[in-house]
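During the second year of the project, the team shifted from modelling isolated chains to modelling whole assemblies. The rationale, set out in the original proposal, was that interfaces cannot be judged from single-chain predictions alone. As a representative example for this report, we include one of the complexes processed in the last quarter. Its constituent sequences, exactly as entered into the pipeline, are reproduced here:
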Amino acid sequence: MTEKLTDSERVEQIDPLLANGWAMTDGRDAIHKTFVFKNFVEAFGFMTRAAIWAEKWNHHPEWSNVYKSVDVTLTTHDADGLSALDAKLGAKLDTLAGG
Amino acid sequence: MTEKLTDSERVEQIDPLLANGWAMTDGRDAIHKTFVFKNFVEAFGFMTRAAIWAEKWNHHPEWSNVYKSVDVTLTTHDADGLSALDAKLGAKLDTLAGG
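Output from the structure prediction step:
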């Protein structure tokens, strides 16, 4: 799970995220997305749900929060780039955010 | 509560924070501190406790988390700088972090 994705795996696992608001991060083999909610409670509620999944899967986002906005960056330090765990967590975050 | 602190108020309210690991932020009238915990559960547990106080006081941090580290910046947008709310929240965060 923590090996860097191959080119064909990227097409299969990362491209659907890029089509759903994620973008490649400049200068890093990482993806990022900004989630915007109605207010702080909604934003932090999302982070709380995500945190439990991140810990369960032992794969944690780099993220920041300013009021109702949450910026998330996903990459796998052990793999020095994107792994299947990033694809899995990214898809989960989209689900948790409601779309 | 949301008026920018005067010089004498800064000495009284902000200086104790600066003596406890907070620092002025370059280019902004804001303070920041990095809290480091044992692991992600401890770090996010801190954020969760802090989030409830932030919402209760309607004063929210700008913050980021990478695994066991939490970077916090405090300022008051309405006041265009540091207010008493930042001093109050900063002190609370120190208490919640255990020191």
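Residues 57 and 85 of chain A are 8 Å apart (CA to CA). Chain A has a mean pLDDT of 96.
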